[in-house]
Amino acid sequence: MIKNRTILGNNEGMALLITIMVISLLVAVTIQFSRGMRQNYLTAATSMDGWQQHLIANSALNIGSLLLENDGEENDFDSLQDVWGTLEAEVFQGLFARGELELQVQDLSGLLQINSLVEHGKEGENNNNANENREILKQLLLSGTFELEGEEMARDIVDALVDWLDEDDRESDFGAESGYYRSLNEPYSCRNGAVATIEELLLVKGITPELLMGEGDNKGLADFVTVFGNDGTININTAPGELIRAMAPQLSMDMIDTLTEYRKEEGNRENLKEKNWYNSVSGWPGDIILPEKVITTKSTYFRLVAAGSFHDLRREIIAVMERDKDNHVGMLYKKVE
């Protein structure tokens, strides 16, 4: 009898142990399942939020494209007073029930076209201002905006850029062709053609990351040049003041500040359609004439930064648009950040 009670007690203990183990296993499985479901939910929610941001950012690009097209049809000149140049975030509030849209437009035609440092087109066809643009770049490098050691370094960089861009293997007086680049520890060949990205300029002799991209609060060469376009023109209505001064180095920075303020005043907007409007600026030296072949008041290339934000997340798209002579706007470049 005692033996039977012992066996019974052992069986009951074993059953209780098994029950506890099963319950523990069920609890663990339930917790793991709950975690998995929650993770799947968060993943799906994040994916949905990301898609929402992407749609908003693409909507911003479409808005920017339409603004540029309408502006081209309404005006035969471009300035920072145009709608695309005065965009503010509050303009787009309320467009979406969930999420916010941001859009910024930069006129790349107000920058120095780096590919315009060499001649393009058929022989004898004057479709480029190569010599003028080389001088402008040299004066920009010497403007004090960058830390360069004298005129020789500026001259060397301009010649090296010309050699990088032109199609032959003849070295300029102070430039570099494939022979130089192949002698480096990590050799490569000279492009001998147009560059497609600003970052490629880091391969050119004499151009350092600090010079190209700037450092700290200091501007870099990338703030003043573009790889889009090769007709050698610069829109005086949107060009940085430093670039305008590079066209006429004898100008003071106070005069440049006065000129850039003139461009912003609404009452002067109609004057900006004429290339020589700068003569109307108070205090402008009458003996200084900006290079007429280089300056323009019409823009072709624009950089758009479009962003969609939702639930503290942000999706950004950077695009470059070209607006042709018929005011059709097409995309040349697109990058999703």
Count of separate structural domains: 2
Q: What's the total count of β strands? A: 8
Q: Tell me the radius of gyration.
A: 31 Å
Distance between the termini: 80 Å
CATH class of the largest domain reads Alpha Beta
Structural class: alpha/beta
Topology (SSEs and partners):
Blueprint: H1 2-74, E1 100-107, E2 112-113, H2 130-141, H3 150-165, H4 178-181, H5 209-213, E3 225-226, E4 234-235, H6 241-247, H7 253-264, E5 295-296, E6 301-310, E7 313-323, E8 329-336
Parallel strand pairs: 2-3, 4-5
Antiparallel strand pairs: 1-6, 6-7, 7-8
Helix pairs in contact: 2-3, 2-6, 6-7
Walk me through this protein's architecture:
The protein is of the alpha/beta class. The chain folds into two domains: 172 residues, 2-Layer Sandwich (Pantoate--beta-alanine Ligase, Chain: A,domain 2), CATH 3.30.1300.30; 109 residues, EpsJ-like (Ribonucleotide Reductase Protein R1, domain 1, Orthogonal Bundle). 38% of the residues lie in helices and 13% in strands. It is built from seven helices and eight strands; from the N terminus they run H-E-E-H-H-H-H-E-E-H-H-E-E-E-E. The strands form three sheets. Strands 1-6-7-8 form a four-stranded antiparallel sheet, with helices on one face. Strands 2-3 form a two-stranded parallel sheet. It has a two-stranded parallel ribbon with strand order 4-5. Strand 7 and strand 8 form a beta hairpin. The chain is extended. The N and C termini lie far apart (80 Å).
Which terms summarize this structure?
337 residues, alpha/beta, Pantoate--beta-alanine Ligase, Chain: A,domain 2, Ribonucleotide Reductase Protein R1, domain 1, 2 domains, two-stranded parallel ribbon, 7 helices, extended
